[in-house]
Amino acid sequence: MRNVFLEEKHTSTEKLVELTQDHLSNYSRHIYNIKHQSERLGKLRESLTQNEVVVHVDYKACHGKGAPDGVGHALKNLADTIVSYGTSIPDADTHAEQLNLNSSVRLFKITEEDVKSSAELVPPDLKTVPGTMRIHQLTSTKAGLIYTREVSCFCDFACGCLSLKRRP
User: Fold this and answer.
1) Dihedral, 13, 15, 19, 20 alpha carbons, nearest 10
2) Positive or negative, the Cα torsion across 68, 45, 43, 52?
3) Rounded to an integer, what distance in angstroms lies between the CA atom of residue 136 and that of residue 151?
4) In what order do the strands lie in the sheet with 145-149?
5) pTM to 2 decimals?
6) CA distance linking residue 151 with residue 161, whole number of Å
7) What is the pLDDT of residue 24?
8) Which ranges constitute the DSSP H helices of the chain?
9) Sequence-ordered list of residues with C-beta below 8 angstroms from that of 34, at least 6 positions apart, any chain
10) According to the model, what pLDDT value does residue 96 have?
11) Mean of the pLDDT values across residues 66-85?
12) DSSP three-state, residue 133
C-alpha cells in the first residue's frame, strides 16, 4: 500500500485566469508556428523533383531533432560499430581519423588555438541580438543588418507578415 500526501493550496479564480492569460499568447504562437511550418513543409514535399530534398532544421532549445543532431547520432553509431569490430579509439584524433575513413562526413579538429584566433576576429563592438531564444527565423541581406521573426514565414522575404523585425 502506498501513502499519498496531498498539499492543500488556496488561490482565486482571478489568479488562475491571470496565469492562463500570461501563458496563452506564447502557447498560441507556438501552435500557430507548428501548424504554419507543417503546412508549408507539406507543400514543399509535394512539389519536390527527383533531385531535390527538403531539410527542416528546428532551432528551438532542447529539441535534438535537427540535421546536426541526426548527423551526430549517425556518427556516434558508426564509432560504436568500428569499436565493436575491434578497432580502438583512444582519443579525439583517432576518432576523427576513423570516422573520416568510414564516412562521407568530413570531421575537422578545432584546437584551442583555433578558437582563440577566431575569437580575435570578432569585433569588440558586436551587439547581441535580444530575445535569441524566441527567434524562429533570421535573414540578412547585408552586413550589419538582420531581420527576425518569432514565427517562421515562407512567403517572399519582403512580405512583412508575421511581425518581421529589422535589427540594425
Assistant:
1) 20
2) positive
3) 6
4) 137-142, 145-149, 165-167
5) 0.39
6) 10
7) 78
8) 13-46, 67-84, 92-102, 112-119
9) none
10) 87
11) 80
12) helix
